[in-house]
């Protein structure tokens, strides 16, 4: 089958179902692979656990992977996730791939969202990662993107002509209650110790730092802006209208976005998922955001979008909402369009959080990416999945 780009006329040939080499074969993920892939994922990305808990974690992880990579309702057609099988017949590696659609100048583009890339060091000799990436690049996609590449994946992808978006590679942290932030971090490593040692200390220390770390009064330009709660269906309806000023943007079909938000709401690491909108005094929507958060924890921004010059007002609203909820702080992925507003806040820290990269052979796509005129990250990535943060098997 030949697919023709609506923009350039470049022919794209569908990749063969199985690709062989002397290092082994690469083929689409199948149901019988899930337990082996889940075990490899837990070995690479999660802490060790006792055997009876490991079996439970493997089963839970495998079932979750089945839902996001093999469920035809979410990923129609053959799975785009790939496994590498070494010459001995063992699992050598895995590449998680989610399908999405973009649009550029009214042309519809097939996109591959690249997630976890991992290899079994016991059976792999450094070939599984490059072999998996080469295989996915031979598929029928117009663009490939990731927003969570670690430094190893970054080293593999850069020679393959991926465009790096430096501003999107950063994560930001705004601290509200410094001792509570330290306690929340420790809670992830030593839950019992944090509860009995750090939590009481945080309650004593943080009131003395309130004036320094409390979010400032909202910007003068947003003093008439108010925020309102919304549900997932309302967020799914309104988010696409705020992405229309990007040339390269997602094209969600039918109930695709509500289904995606329902899956995103299953994440457990940072608390429940909340949806809010910002409005002017006439009731016109200026922006919206979705974040995970609960009192005492560190809130995690999933998605924020605003129209025109209203990023500052929307960011102010997010900060105030997390503060009023009793969160110790808030973290998120940076975006070019609200970096200036982030710089205006005190007690904001930046760090490398994961490589955001795009690859395409279509000149118009690469030009839009180079100009930063692309909607990427959040729901167009894989940080919304439980694989990005949750501990399975508990």
Describe this structure in words.
The chain is α+β, with helices and mostly antiparallel strands. The chain has two domains: 2-166, Aminopeptidase; 170-353, Aminopeptidase (3-Layer(aba) Sandwich). Helix content is 31%, strand content 27%. Strands 3, 4, 5, 6, 7, 8, 9, 12 and 18 form a nine-stranded mixed sheet that branches. It has a seven-stranded mixed sheet with strand order 11-13-14-15-16-10-17. The longest helix is centred in the first third of the chain and has 20 residues, at 51-70. Residues 1-6 have low confidence and may be disordered.
Report the sheet with the most strands, covering strand number, pairing sense and barrel closure. 9 strands, mixed
Helix content: 25-40%
Calculate the terminal CA-CA distance, rounded to whole Å: 45 Å
* Silhouette: globular
Radius of gyration: 22 Å
Low-confidence stretches: 1-6
Class by SSE composition: alpha+beta
Proportion of residues in extended strands: 25-35%
- Number of DSSP-assigned strands: 18
CATH class identity of the largest domain: Alpha Beta
**Count of separate DSSP helical elements:** 12
Average residue-wise pLDDT: 85
